Amino acid sequence: MQDFSLYFQLGWQHILDWQGYDHILFVIALCGAYTFTDWKKVLILVTAFTLGHSLTLALSIFKVISVNTPLIEFLIPVTILVTAISNILSKRQKPKGQRFKYTIALFFGLIHGLGFSNYLRSLLGKSSSVTAELFAFNVGLEFGQLIIVAGVLILSFILIWIVKIKRWDYNFFVSSAIFGISFVMAAERLPALLP
């Protein structure tokens, strides 16, 4: 039980760590186009993302797949860029478009899971109870993501329903800011891929 609480805490602290803000940006981009009334859609999106990153995190920890760290570090801001562009280009959430967003969240979760794996592998060392610690870490990551989602949805509620900012303006501002930040991140990480 002590190990569970330790790895749970490490999971949520890792996702909420401002030094690794790329994952925070992705979660904000993922739910930035939604308002408080869309909480079910957001919950499904975040769950799809969690399933994706849990799978590749486990596969990497159990050495089923190997990680090309510079490639993954470059692809993470690319996933943020694509998500931000998707938010800007989609004015209305159509059912087919929503299913596509769930699929993309799952796929992008696979990439982010590989990004988490280096951190978790360094924590685990030669631990013998990897499965329990991996589970606790994933639950902690999900908890941290839900804190970010709650913050974004509360902010959207305040700005859209109380301050009366138009929903499209809110989405455009948040998504454009995230696009700019992630573009710079991707550009900074690109040289590490080049020979």
Automatic annotation (TrEMBL):
<feature type="transmembrane region" description="Helical">
    <location>
        <begin position="170"/>
        <end position="187"/>
    </location>
</feature>
<feature type="transmembrane region" description="Helical">
    <location>
        <begin position="43"/>
        <end position="65"/>
    </location>
</feature>
<feature type="transmembrane region" description="Helical">
    <location>
        <begin position="143"/>
        <end position="163"/>
    </location>
</feature>
<keyword id="KW-0812">Transmembrane</keyword>
<keyword id="KW-1133">Transmembrane helix</keyword>
<keyword id="KW-0472">Membrane</keyword>
<feature type="transmembrane region" description="Helical">
    <location>
        <begin position="102"/>
        <end position="120"/>
    </location>
</feature>
<feature type="transmembrane region" description="Helical">
    <location>
        <begin position="20"/>
        <end position="36"/>
    </location>
</feature>
<protein>
    <submittedName>
        <fullName>HupE/UreJ family protein</fullName>
    </submittedName>
</protein>
<dbReference type="InterPro" id="IPR032809">
    <property type="entry name" value="Put_HupE_UreJ"/>
</dbReference>
<feature type="transmembrane region" description="Helical">
    <location>
        <begin position="71"/>
        <end position="90"/>
    </location>
</feature>
<dbReference type="Pfam" id="PF13795">
    <property type="entry name" value="HupE_UreJ_2"/>
</dbReference>
